[in-house]
């Protein structure tokens, strides 16, 4: 299957072409930093101060000693953490630590070109090629996720944007593909003839926002459809007759905000029978019921806590829960207690730091005391990039394969760690019956000093990824302006 319908058969977009591009990249990096023997340089370079190898004095980075390991990877620290009890969980954890440590400590650099801090560079060319290739025909087993087609549009377009790639060539194919997925009663299905679903509609609307194509969305119908998902207890269902959970609340509020839809419930909404008049009525209370004794937030009341977002919450308990999700010694995040590190939680948990720092009304850099940004960057660059000169994409952990989902959320994790996001608490959160709260974010890149602490060079930086919408900041601002007058 091919997730996108193309209007043209542009040969520039074929996989063959992408592989050729990778080959060009491969040739330029032939003498990359991990080779022991350097080629001799010009004849004038050998007669200074008795240097034993001509030209080496011109390349200080290659002759310097390896940078020391950070404190959390030194032998004395590693020795502090051990489990006396052996269970399936501790065995699985020991296996993951064993597979990650050689990468984290630089013992195994997978042939990657290293930056000035001894960490692998972000392989942006390869990751971009991997993401572009997701829009080509995919292997047969992908038919099983045909109903998740819009997610590919979103993961790929958002990932490419984080890498600074031009996504404009995909705009028209995206519009042509998603138009038939929109139901006249509002919302998008995952494939042709499928019922509207919150997850697919969320992914489609984010992809359209990135591509500056929100005019495709029937906003009035979307508002009506979201009204049918709002429940008398304050939560949202994922689809008509489907489960009610916190994803529904997040997806619905994201769509209402980006499309600047009225917070007033449509007249025929079932939630009105319980006296509710707005989409936000009883929503905070409903979310507060999802917070568990552990401090985290579950998918629904009474379930187990899983990576998610705050308000109407026990914030200290949530903070403690979030902080405990960063794994030692890997430095990435796990999704739940006693689970393994996984790169996608670089966003699902890593993205919460900007939100909770704002909720605590702390200066954004204070979050440095709450989580270890450098450890997350090290995990993502050393363990989660697919090795191989022609290969790209990012993965859950070294023993897994890359995919578009983990590529986007790894890049988002890099953005959360590298950049600093601030929330303007003085800006209005509602206006003319619309939700404005999520538009109040600003971002700045790292200073030279912060880059040194993180272990990244200029070419390892990713673009700002919005902490709430997980799309480019500029696309969010464009959507805000597009529907500013609020007419439906
Ligand atoms: Zn994952």
UniProtKB/TrEMBL annotation:
Domain Prenyltransferase alpha-alpha toroid: 122-469
Keywords: Metal-binding, Prenyltransferase, Repeat, Transferase, Zinc
Name of the molecule in the record: Terpenoid cyclases/protein prenyltransferase alpha-alpha toroid
GO molecular function (one): protein farnesyltransferase activity
SUPFAM superfamilies: Terpenoid cyclases/Protein prenyltransferases
Recorded family membership: Belongs to the protein prenyltransferase subunit beta family.
Comp. bias regions, Basic and acidic residues: 23-34
A GO term from the CC aspect: protein farnesyltransferase complex
Chain positions covered by the region annotation Disordered: 20-45
UniProt xrefs under PANTHER family: GERANYLGERANYL TRANSFERASE TYPE BETA SUBUNIT, PROTEIN FARNESYLTRANSFERASE SUBUNIT BETA
Cofactor(s) needed for function: Zn(2+)
């Amino acid at each position: 299957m091919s997730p996108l319908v193309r209007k043209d058969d542009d040969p520039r977009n074929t996989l063959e072409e992408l592989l050729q591009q990778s080959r060009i990249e491969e040739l330029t990096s032939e003498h990359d930093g991990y080779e022991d023997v350097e080629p001799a340089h010009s004849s004038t370079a050998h007669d200074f101060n008795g240097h034993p190898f001509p030209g080496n004095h011109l390349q200080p980075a290659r002759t310097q000693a390896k940078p020391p390991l950070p404190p959390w990877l030194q032998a004395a620290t590693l020795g502090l953490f051990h489990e006396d009890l052996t269970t399936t969980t501790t065995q699985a954890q020991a296996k993951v630590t064993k597979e990650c440590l050689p990468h984290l400590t630089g013992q195994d650099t997978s042939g990657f070109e290293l930056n000035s801090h001894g960490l692998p560079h972000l392989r942006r060319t390869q990751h971009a090629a991997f993401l572009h290739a997701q829009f080509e025909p995919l292997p047969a087993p992908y038919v099983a996720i045909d109903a998740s087609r819009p997610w590919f549009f979103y993961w790929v377009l958002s990932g490419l944007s984080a890498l600074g790639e031009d996504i404009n060539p995909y705009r028209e194919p995206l519009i042509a593909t998603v138009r038939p997925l929109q139901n006249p009663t509002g919302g998008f299905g995952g494939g042709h003839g499928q019922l509207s679903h919150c997850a697919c509609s969320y992914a489609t609307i984010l992809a359209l926002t990135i591509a500056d194509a929100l005019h495709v969305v029937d906003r009035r119908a979307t508002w009506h459809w979201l009204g049918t998902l709002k429940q008398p207890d304050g939560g949202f269902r994922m689809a008509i007759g489907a489960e009610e959970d916190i994803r529904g609340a997040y997806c619905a509020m994201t769509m209402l905000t980006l499309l600047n839809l009225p917070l007033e419930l449509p007249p025929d909404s079932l939630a009105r029978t319980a006296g509710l008049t707005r989409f936000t009525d009883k929503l905070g209370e409903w979310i507060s019921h999802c917070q568990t004794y552990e401090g985290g937030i579950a998918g629904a009341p009474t379930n187990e806590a899983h990576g998610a977002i705050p308000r109407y919450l026990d914030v200290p308990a949530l903070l403690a829960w979030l902080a405990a999700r960063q794994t030692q010694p890997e430095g990435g995040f796990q999704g739940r207690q006693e689970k393994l590190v996984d790169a996608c939680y670089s966003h699902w948990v890593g993205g919460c730091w900007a939100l909770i720092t704002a909720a605590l009304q702390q200066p954004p850099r204070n979050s440095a005391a709450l989580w270890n940004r450098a450890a997350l960057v090290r995990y993502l660059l050393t363990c989660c990039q697919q090795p191989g000169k022609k290969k790209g994409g990012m993965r859950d952990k070294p023993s897994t394969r890359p995919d578009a989902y983990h590529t986007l959320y790894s890049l988002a994790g890099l953005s959360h760690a590298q950049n600093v996001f601030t929330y303007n608490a003085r800006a209005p959160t509602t206006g003319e019956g619309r939700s404005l709260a999520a538009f109040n974010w600003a971002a700045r890149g790292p200073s030279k000093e912060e880059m040194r602490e993180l272990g990244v060079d200029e070419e390892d930086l990713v673009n700002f990824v919005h902490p709430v919408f997980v799309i480019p900041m500029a696309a969010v601002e464009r959507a805000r302006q597009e529907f500013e007058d609020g007419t439906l």
